[in-house]
Amino acid sequence: MKTYPLESMTMEQAKKLQFKLIDTITKHFNGKDILTLGDLGVVMGINKPATTLKVEQTLADFFGVEKAVLLRGAGTGSLRWGIISMVKPGDTMLVHDAPIYPTTKVTIDSMGLKIVKVNFNKEDEIKQILTTENIDAVLIQYTRQKINDEYDMEHVINIIREVRKDIQIITDDNYAVMKVRKTGAQCGAQLSAFSLFKLLGPEGIGCLIGKGSYVDNVIKLNYSGGSQVQGHEAMEALRG
């Protein structure tokens, strides 16, 4: 059977991206700061460790998005909070006609979301479903869900935007971010979620990047001190 693996960056592209990250870090941290473990607790006015905020600003700058937030629960938690910020219980979400990742299905089921499936490999089917169904949001998984998947993330987003410019799109970038050239947010989605543990960061820490208004919703929902990613965890994530 013919398969269609994601197009990974070349070694030169990966090196260039790594140097871009180092350059971005130097714009937000001085030499002394980068060698510290960061602060704990919450700082008045920002309601999180100052180091965590600085890391989030660094990542937003690096990925070329409006905002980034570090979250507990790894990629699963980041995707869950992203979905919660976008849709209400009972709303309708469009997904690929394939098995939904089990931990994502927990979020979908617990919110009582109605699921409509379409084959993301078929452009005409995507256009048709968007004109015949009342869709509130779209979830696109970057990595392959079926062995014969061949769809391109950016192309699918562009097709959706042709029919519904205002539709909300969130992408699951787990196992793809930093391996492919663009995140889902850089391809036109409002939000992209991924795990930093899969990028050699600390266990259980995830990241959500994209449009500022949605990220701000997530930050408001995680206002308690116990929900905050602490400074030393943020620094581990950045180094990873």
Q: Key terms for this structure?
A:
7-stranded mixed beta sheet, 7 strands, alpha/beta, globular, 240 residues
| Estimated share of beta-strand residues | 15-25%
Indicate the radius of gyration in whole angstroms.
Answer: 18 Å
Percent of residues in helices? 25-40%
Largest sheet: 7 strands, mixed
Task: Explain this structure.
- The termini are far apart.
- The longest helix is centred in the first third of the chain and has 18 residues.
- The protein has eight helices and seven strands; from the N terminus they run H-H-E-H-E-H-E-H-E-H-E-E-E-H-H.
- With 240 residues, it is α/β, with parallel strands linked by helices.
- Strand 2, helix 4 and strand 3 form a beta-alpha-beta unit.
Task: Break the fold down into its secondary structure elements and pairings.
Elements: H1 11-28, H2 50-63, E1 67-72, H3 74-86, E2 92-96, H4 102-110, E3 114-118, H5 123-132, E4 137-141, H6 153-163, E5 168-172, E6 191-195, E7 205-210, H7 212-221, H8 231-239
Parallel strand pairs: 2-3, 2-4, 4-5, 5-6
Antiparallel strand pairs: 1-7, 6-7
Entry summary:
This protein is α/β, with parallel strands linked by helices and 240 residues long.
